[in-house]
Amino acid sequence: MAKRVLLGMSGGVDSSVSAVLLLQQGYEVIGGFMKNWSTNDDGEECEWRRERRDAMRVAGQLGLKFYTFDFEAEYRAKVYEYMIDEYKAGRTPNPDVLCNKYMKFDLFLKEADKLGCDFVATGHYARRTDSHPLQLPLGQGEGQTVAHLLVGLDENKDQTYFLCQLNQEQLRRSLFPIGDLQKSRVREIAREHKLPVAEKKDSQGICFVGQVDMQQFLEARIAPHDGNIVTTDGKILGKHRGFEFYTIGQRGGLGIGGGTPLYVVDRRPETNEVVVAVGADDPALFKTRLSAVHLSETIPNSLVKHLGKIITARIRYRQPLAECVIESLLPYPDQPPVTDRIAHVRFTTPQRAVAPGQFIAFYDGEELIGSGVIAE
Questions:
Q1: Mind listing the domains of the chain with CATH numbers?
Q2: Known catalytic residues?
């Protein structure tokens, strides 16, 4: 019997072409649309109905069964509330990473199980390859095929960073049909099959929320509270409306005109201060070391095996990979009993705008091996 796949269909060209490719490969494909967010700040319904309509049109054209899953309550609890809490704490979260971890490869995977599916699939630009055999630690799937997460062949579209918190169980059940293709080829396939979304623009913005003005989005949820903009040596340059509305590395939007460009290098919740560096070459903008917590490994012990070895990492999406070493993996303090670890990482060259709250994704060659949340 053909393997059954639940495909996440967003209404975009990438997931639509994924459906075409899966059918060509002989899978039984079921389309699934996730409704995770429904209302904009102005009270109007956001674009989920239009996106679902586009997904349904493609599913109908290809003869797929189609389901809609309402995950809005879970999304608000696990992604949205987390995002707001992180901004309030002076950190910069990445909701797309958590959306994949908790929605697309957790709740969606559970729905796949209910439908008797062997796999879930998405339109991410990433690749999965398997190895046989690899002995895993006792109780962690010894003797099973091991899934490896590799970067997409289109370097400009690679999305493994957004998948950096997935574990072995999730990867083993996941398919990424377009990972071996260039974006231009994906468009060509959509045109060849006359898909109604062939020319549709790529979605942007917050996962499932869409393209929003981040400052307006936050101000609708966090009350403005004036504070000082200060230099690294404590000089007051002006006022801001709340430290939560600024990001590390930000230039502009500070309301201070003229002179040398200013860049945000720190936010201090305890004093409601935004700290800025003067000029693009200010040493305060760069760090060679960071620590990361809430570590995740694509394969059990994959980070331990690379301890002390030269690997690469990125600290934000689309940042070029940078050479680094994980110098230590230690129990995370103040967490009895120990349920987490902290990684101390040293980069070969200084990294610009290291933002606590963002994810650091670790790579060995083309393979993503794990990740963590930047603590400092």
A1: 4-192 (3.40.50.620), 225-281 (2.30.30.280), 286-374 (2.40.30.10)
A2: 99, 207
